[in-house]
Amino acid sequence: MAGSTPASATASASPRPLTSPWSEAWRRFRKHKLAVISAVLLGFLILAVLFGPLVWRVPINDIDFSVILQGPSLAHPLGTDDLGQDLLARMLYGGRISLAVGFTAMLVAVSVGILIGAIAGLAGGKTDAALMWLTDLFLSLPQLPLLLLIIFLFRDTLKAIVGPELGVFILIVIIIGLFNWMQVARLVRAQFFSLREKEFVEAARALGASRFRLALRHILPNSLGPVIVAATIDVAAAIIAESTLSFLGLGFPPDIPTWGRLLFDARDHLDFAPHWALFPGLAIFLTVLTINFVGDGLRDALDPRRVV
Residue 40 — very low, low, confident or very high, per pLDDT cuts 50/70/90? Predict the structure, then answer.
């Protein structure tokens, strides 16, 4: 009949089922093949350092002078060091510390950055100017020399208070975290400036929502996309910073085999025992590379302007 609509046209015009923003982000992330492969590889590395020592039960300080600087073998899959200690066991143990430093320092940096960026973006005026001046000040500071100086000054004090391993861990995490919050603060501030004039924020303000509720319940959740991407970069930066400090001999004590410390110990044996530096260096490289690729995938997945 004239004016009737075919059933096929009605079916094709049916609305697309609604999905949550996180489901849509997951769909976008899955289309980034390199990020998915990196996430799987990163998950394998994390599981290996967490549960590997339960499978490979060789003590990290077990000395055997008969196998000094031995290359990879069935008994020692990654070889041994200058004391005959098994490198696989030491890398699995040290990986826990390196990854723990990276993720904990990231939490410190993100927490400080969100706090300062939210206050600056919500308050504006002189408060915003003062906080951005502080951010620019931290950005202009030379990080590595200050890291070395602060660790040199306060390492022994913290060791005496909470022990050598925990003391150095707390010091490194706090220092790295406090030198990596600036980018997150700028991102959050920009997001707050952009979102605080949106319609849903104006509606919540008209209904009597306080400034704290506006920030915590309405603006901040919508600002987390760029923050999550920045957090992945901070993890990689923290792992590299810890490895640098350990390589310079100012990180964890010699009996705590972080990946950076293993590189430091192997520096005088590169000519005849390259495996000693190769495997820790490869672990740092793969961890940082996979984290960066995951960050790229999250950036594409959480950007609503990208059509995927």
Answer: very high
